Amino acid sequence: MTLNDITTQLYDLAVGGYFNREKFTKRRLRTVLACFLREEVGTRFTMEIALPDGWWLCEVTRGEHGYDYLIPDTREQEEVIWERIGH
Q1: Average pLDDT of each block of 10 consecutive residues along the chain (87 residues)?
Q2: Rounded to an integer, what distance in angstroms lies between the CA atom of residue 13 and that of residue 50?
Q3: Range of 44's domain?
Q4: Total domains, the chain
Q5: Given this model, what pLDDT does residue 87 score?
Q6: CA 44 to CA 3: how far, in whole Å?
Q7: How would you class 65 by CB atoms within 10 Å of its CB: exposed for 0-12, middle for 13-18, buried for 19 or more?
Q8: In the β-sheet with 44-51, what is the strand arrangement from edge to edge?
Q9: 32: number of Cβ within 10 Å
Q10: One-letter-per-residue 3-state SS of 39-51
Q11: Which of 54, 83, 40, 25 is nearest to 7 (CA)?
């Protein structure tokens, strides 16, 4: 997917446009993702997203064929991400 595709999908999923416990515009979300996923910085960015059933971690990745995202299905899967990022 493109960065615009990822931005649109995540923004549409987020309750009220909330990420990392702050209200985002779609433009701000795209800017943040572009900044943290540029080649000099990294290929993975982890953030929180507000979903109807609460706050969840969301990982966005950049690969050679575009961008993708992962929102865990369970709190146990989310805990694995928390451990990986050292929280």
Answers
A1: 98 98 98 95 96 98 96 97 90
A2: 8
A3: 3-84
A4: 1
A5: 75
A6: 13
A7: exposed
A8: 22-23, 18-19, 44-51, 54-63, 66-70
A9: 17
A10: CCCCCEEEEEEEE
A11: 25
